[in-house]
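Practice problem 4.
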């Protein structure tokens, strides 16, 4: 199977607070860049037959530009689209993540990218030793529940087949207002799975990802 790995990322974050935290990120631009490099290294190590699509909203410096151009197959940098800044840098985490994902799917269709499965991973997180590609090498949607609740879905890593991209895009667009109202992105994905009646969905207790929570710096391993 051919796998497209979507990395959603903002290397250079503004100081704007989120709805649930006055700190948008406790990490510096340099730290976030180094963490995202680890994201890419783990993908290359653990996922076969991959291509990487990086969706960013940062004014790359020369070092960042050279690195990403040499390690990613496709780069969509939304920085110059100032109309999107209020969506991506506003108080709603869901609106930022949803906007990056919608734009990524549009890029996939506009550039006629063909693959079997889309893995989405949040930049700065990396695939851990608990990541087992065999859990994802199928035609199913693969997610992790938070606290074993189907209404609260982990969104730093998930996998969906190509033929579900339209449904995901339409769902996200139809929930823009909920995102503006700061509905949790994890809760929204619970709605998404309900909207497709949980068809062809696999949930894992351990999905195989590690990283640092941006608003506080605590370490996540799950």
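Answer key:
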């Amino acid at each position: 199977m051919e796998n497209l790995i979507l990395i959603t990322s903002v290397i250079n974050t503004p100081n704007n607070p989120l709805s649930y935290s006055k700190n948008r990120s406790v990490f510096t631009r340099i730290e976030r860049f180094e963490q995202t490099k680890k994201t890419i290294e783990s993908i290359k190590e653990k996922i076969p037959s991959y291509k990487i699509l990086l969706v960013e909203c940062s004014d790359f410096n020369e070092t960042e530009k050279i690195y990403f151009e040499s390690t990613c197959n496709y780069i969509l940098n939304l920085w110059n689209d100032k109309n999107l800044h209020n969506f991506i840098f506003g108080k709603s985490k869901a609106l930022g993540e949803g906007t990056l994902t919608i734009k990524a799917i549009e890029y996939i269709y506009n550039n006629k990218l063909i693959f079997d499965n889309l893995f989405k991973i949040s930049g700065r997180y990396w695939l851990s030793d608990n990541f087992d590609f065999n859990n994802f090498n199928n035609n199913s949607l693969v997610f992790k529940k938070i606290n074993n609740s189907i209404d609260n879905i982990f969104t730093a890593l998930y996998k969906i087949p190509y033929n579900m991209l339209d449904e995901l895009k339409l769902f996200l667009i139809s929930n823009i207002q909920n995102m503006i109202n700061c509905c949790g992105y994890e809760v929204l994905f619970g709605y998404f799975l309900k909207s497709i009646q949980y068809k062809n969905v696999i949930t894992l207790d351990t999905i195989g990802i590690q990283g640092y929570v941006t608003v506080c710096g605590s370490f996540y391993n799950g």
